[in-house]
User: Fold this.
Amino acid sequence: MLAGTGAALPPAPGEDVSVALALVNSLTEGPAGESDQLATPVEIARWIWSCGLGSVTAAHVSAKDVAALAELRTAIRELFTAAADEPEPNITAVSLINADARLVLGAPALRWSAGPPQQRWQAERPDTPANALALIARDAIETVCGPLGLVIHNCEAHGCARIFFRTHGRRRWCSNTCGDRVRVARHYLARKARPAKASQQPAGGQ
Assistant:
């Protein structure tokens, strides 16, 4: 949701290639407050499945899992914001991401049938919230350490806290919705300034 408007936003550029980025953008913040897309076990189970992180039912998502996912989201936001702004991230955030990446042991596995070879992660405990956390944390690490780490960008639209991968030109906003909102605001301010300038003209147009 776009903070302050109630309008739904499309996925930000990069969410289709980074589940860690998708997790970060599942929480929006703005003048109207927070909008959390992953606040309940049902929402989390559905999201885990939709992201290809395993098949988890809401009954297997505990209150502890809900809190752990929220903590990981906060840590990854800290990591991505640091990558975008170039300061060092908080060491606590880095430690949490590293710890979550080790939650479930696993190894890459090769799948090669009816098409090109594909690499899949074969986990010791698949289809669990813990495995989903581990996969998200590993994706966050791979993202900031790879080429995508160089294109992490904060949306510059006022009231939007989303992050995206700026892989095209000088893009400044996470969506056309944010870009349109900025342009409308600029147009409004420009029109508002015109009467003030006109009233400052000397009598007789001198």
Summary: The first helix runs from residue 19 to 24. The first strand starts at residue 27 and ends at 30.
